[in-house]
Write a structure and sequence with these properties.
Strand content: 35-45%
Number of strands: 4
Largest sheet: 4 strands, antiparallel
Radius of gyration: 24 Å
Number of helices: 2
Strand order of the largest sheet: 1-2-3-4
């Protein structure tokens, strides 16, 4: 006669249920997080910022050693699916260092196609 241990079966069942619940909550949080546009310091955002810097800060693109530093997320609005950000754009031009503080907003144009926009809010001259 084989006797089963119901206590052991219950423990296995509870572990299985917990595993399923954790998996579902992880998947759900991943889906929610995926609804936000690229972060303030992402490579995609930096690429767009570089083209905006070329247009509005250094239109002749004569500056050298261009880089962003100190990028910060000022706020993240999950309802509007946007970030408010600040960064410092540094470059050198004819032996002189230049830097500008840029504040900008990142938001979705088309979240399904993963198209986003970067809107410049302000550019300050801090030569």
């Amino acid at each position: 006669m084989v006797r089963s241990d119901c206590g052991e079966c219950n423990k296995i069942f509870i572990k299985y249920i917990l595993f399923i619940l954790i998996s579902i909550s992880s998947a759900f949080s991943g889906i929610c997080e995926a609804s936000m546009p690229p972060a303030c310091d992402s490579k995609e955002t930096e690429k767009v910022l570089l083209s905006l810097a070329r247009k509005y800060i250094d239109p002749f693109w004569i500056g050298k050693n261009r880089r962003f530093t100190g990028t910060q997320t000022i706020s993240a609005n999950k309802e509007a699916e946007e970030y408010q950000c600040r960064t410092r754009f540094l470059y050198t031009m004819v032996g002189d260092s230049k830097n500008h503080v840029i504040t900008y907003t990142i938001y979705w144009n088309d979240p399904v196609k993963k198209r986003f926009s970067v809107e410049l809010n302000s550019i300050s001259n801090n030569h």
